[in-house]
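Quick one:
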Amino acid sequence: MTQRQFLAALALSITVAACASTPAQVGGKTPTLTVGAWSNPTTWSNVSLKNLTVSGVLEFADADVQLNADWIMIENGGELRIGSELKPHTKKATITLTATDQFEDIMGMGTKCICVMMGGRLELHGEQRVSWTKLGSSASKNANAITLSEDIDWRAGERIVIASSALDSAQAEERGITLVQGRTLTLDAPLQHAHYGVIQSLDAGRVNLDERAEVGLLSRNIVVEGDVGSTATKFGGHIMVMGSNSSVIETSSAYRSSARVSGVELRRMGQFNRLGRYPFHWHFNGSSQGDYLKNSAIHDSIQRGVVVHNTSDVLVQNNVVWKSPGHAFVIEAGGELNNSLERNLSINPQPVTFTQTSTNGILSTQHDERAAGYWITGKNNIFRGNSAAGGQFGGFWFDKPKADANYALVFENNTVHSHGSSDGAGLWLQSGWDSNTIDYNRMKFKGLTAYKNSRGFWADGVTATLDSSVLADNRVAMTGNANITSSVVIGRSANLDSTYRGFAYSDRWGGVGIDLYNNRSDVTDVTFINFPAPDANPINSSACRNESVRVRTKGLRFVNAEMSYCKGDTLFEDVDGSLSG
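Output:
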């Protein structure tokens, strides 16, 4: 570390003797500083402090550095830097948050945090890695190696997670890498489950079905973590970025804070059942153009993953969140505008019950007991190229976003799978059953791949259109007040798994394409594949009851699929004869 960097560090609100030969008391703890000159990097390679307030600039050298502190406050234009966009940190840097007093509250941000407020800046830039990819071939049960679909820069000693490609999200598995040979990784333990890794070609090559399991890298060279006791106490670290007031959206550019974070591993982060204490969290920060969280991994979380709350214009891209207690990615309150979530990977979020309430929000009513990969109440945001790879409930759950005449939600080319619970839904659009919910039918949900879900696409009390999508191997591919255009619906594919938590589903799994109940649906330019009669049906009237359903069809194709009809008053308007012939 250069002398200039340490002179800048003098602006910190800590007092250390000008000569490190006699360590000073800092916030009640004796800093563990090696005897030596301020300008010598080895003096600062492993430091433990009670707390650290940055009002100037603190910059890590490109060396192996360990910093321990109860909490770190970055405020009033202060800046903490590890690496830069142009020159990422290449060594090992670890920040361990160590507070144990769960009632301590630093400027309304709690404790055990990297707290960024009132114009503070957090710049963390680790190595740029392949964050996640897919299998290049199927991996069998008991295999001790996997082959990936692309070249990677992963290393022996690092850890990965392999998503389930089956109905059961619990078939996701974490493993260590012991050897890398091209695209083949040797694992530290055999696989307990098979994982599908082939792109299927159907309908004489007209349709490609991609059910390959995702594989995410969990290791990074910059680590921010709670201490080793965090898991037992359910009190981990957290990163929080906000303006000057925890309950008012920041409008002042001087007080708006900033976080640009890439290539970072977050572990043992989050504080269970505490509102606003998540691994990574923008909070009431207003328009935060230029902020991002990219190419990072969150695992061994204690509460949720990434939360965007009353903050706009941020980029959340190419991150992996594995097994978070509660929702993995959250657009929290409805005041979030123009945020982009692109090519993120959620794997198997865990249902949990929160009870805490607060005047600033009610954690207990945000439905983490039905943990979703992406829980969304904001309406003007972009979701593109993400994957929700397993969970018990919603993959993408739009939970009653409030009506807004100017909303412009974008949902394109996302994948959702392995939500096999009877309550599980891939893309779940939920209504507030009143005029306060957005009109989902004003936009198209486009390019969805949904497989191995109880329901692939569920328009629950709303009207919505699904376009240019592929739905396969779902118990029910689509239901609710849903229209579908220019898409493919597949009953059963070569990915044959049909068990969920040890329970074997009957042959009816994959038996229903579009399930209708008391609603109208338009089905236009849709190909149905592999719905053999009599135990499967491309378009089904729910329970064959008198539902007064009206279906308008045009441009249908059937490949190894036959319609079957039941008594009732379902009406089919076959515009061009492609349904009835």
